[in-house]
Amino acid sequence: MISGWVRPRQVYHQLSTFLISITEMQRYIEIAKSPGMSPDSSCQRLLRGWMKLVAPFTPSSVDGVSSHGTSFHKAVEQPEDIPESIFVLLQAVAISGSSDSLLGETALLLSKAWPTIWIWIKYIYHANLRDLPGMIHDAAFARRYQVIGAMLGLLAKHGRNQIIFEIIVNHESEILPMMADMWKGEGTDKFLATQGFQCGIFPSTPAPLIQQKFVAQIIATCGTAQEAVYVACQRVERHLEQKHLNYQAITLDLNFFRFELMETDPSPLVQPMHASSRVAITLMDSWKHAASMSFTGSVEARERLLMICLFSVVMLAQNSPQAYNRIGDMLHRDLFHLLAKSASLVKKSSPIYDAFFDRIACMFHDILSPATVHREILSLTRRCVAAALKRGNLRPLETYPRVRDALLGLQKLLDQRERKVCVDLSYPNLNFLSYLVVFDLVAHHGKMIASLSPAFYERKQFFFLNYVKVGGSTSSMELVDLNERPSFLPFSSDNTLYDEWCQLFHALEGAMPFLVAIPQGGLGAVQVMTATVHIMDYGESTSPGTGDPTEALNIRWLHCKSIHAPELW
């Protein structure tokens, strides 16, 4: 038995003395995977073979490498230094262990074999991915890369198994960085992407703790959460550039967005996703391909992609502080056409039929309709609906009653806004406006809010946010003196509401009165609302403009009035 690390050629020749030949190993694998044997039984036999044929002749640790004057990742200088019989057995274990189920006995055998398996995975990984960039198009490189991905994917797939979970936790300082490095590499290295996308399964582990640790690791590997989101988008973009598309792999990478956006515990990637136009565009481009004639996958694969894309864009826009920006991205990517086209592709017999059309109804009723309180979204939605109606694109949406009603509700709302009818500020319209206002107050005007002093209340000044006249989708904001009583204040002539508004300035410290103006649709028609914002304690680690806006401020709406104020446009 070899007691420590030696030079690679010595490792190879000494192992060759003890290992069975490649022909004998292949014969053993054929017997272990004989017809009629379950994947678990085959995997168990292969793992027992590993313990007898490879483990006894594997260096016990990498600690002794430094004593030979070299670092571990330089221990392999040529790919032929990896004994082929070891590699083919490792490959067979990876394939057999990737089945949907993994029995307790199989997991226990894997746990016993893992220390030596891990040594060879690192051996192969460093040989192929760090020291041999010239091997990128080599068939041997592709095989070895796939085996590494399969072995790590095996851990991710069965992460809920307690034994597998313990393997990951016990080696997380090495396993997770390797996973994250490979995941990032497939998104940033165009040559590595040609070997396929093996690593999309890594963040899809059913073990929440491992998934959270992996997300934290990819953020550390990428440098920032924003860069991690960028890489996630680039992975999908590189998928769509391939000549032959792997729809299973694409599904895994798109699911990454859906899973992060729907996390009960806020993920550190959610805010960067909400802030990213690229995420919205990536999802819309993927959706466009799934609904197009160029899609070559099965009906089931198409429906999965349509469902993932629709669910993801709904969650991206729902309850997001920057929803109006993401909705704009979607509308510019022909959202209405994709909704109608997808509706024609999902048949009534499909298992996703009800859930899919419920999400479409949600898009119309809970997202697009409330978003029309924003002038740019109102104008853009009106143009998109008119263009879709002109082309006859919306007919497929009329087959599902709830979708038809939601679409008619949106069209009615657009018509009312055109005729200067007051905007309905019941939920969810008011909910959307609350997110919009609070986000702008913190993200764009946080410094002004933070600088408030007692004199602010003594002077009877209030903030005025104007969503009628906007610049770059952002409201203008100014301080207004209440004593001057501007003409656009939404108060009747008997001074009753005006007196109530004045009393707000005697409220508890931290309650800040402000005014919001939104467009009704016609030129000069404005809807003005009074409200108070309570400035909550930001805490030691959070300050205005950097924290979560919904946690920083609490908004209370008080009064609404429709006025004619062309000077606000």
What labels would you give this structure?
569 residues, alpha+beta, 5-stranded mixed beta sheet, 24 helices, 5 strands, elongated, disordered N terminus
SSE run: HHHHHHHHHHHHHHHHHHHHHHEEHEEHE
Q: What is the quaternary state of this protein?
A: single chain
Mean pLDDT: 77
| Neighbour order of strands in the largest sheet | 2-1-3-4-5
> Termini distance?
84 Å
Poorly predicted ranges (pLDDT <50, ≥5 residues)? 1-17, 62-79, 537-551
Please compute the radius of gyration using only Cα atoms. 30 Å
Q: Could you estimate the helical fraction of the residues in percent?
A: 55-70%
Strand content: 5-15%
Number of helices: 24
What global shape is seen?
elongated
Number of strands: 5
Major pleated sheet = 5 strands, mixed
User: Structural class, please?
Assistant: alpha+beta
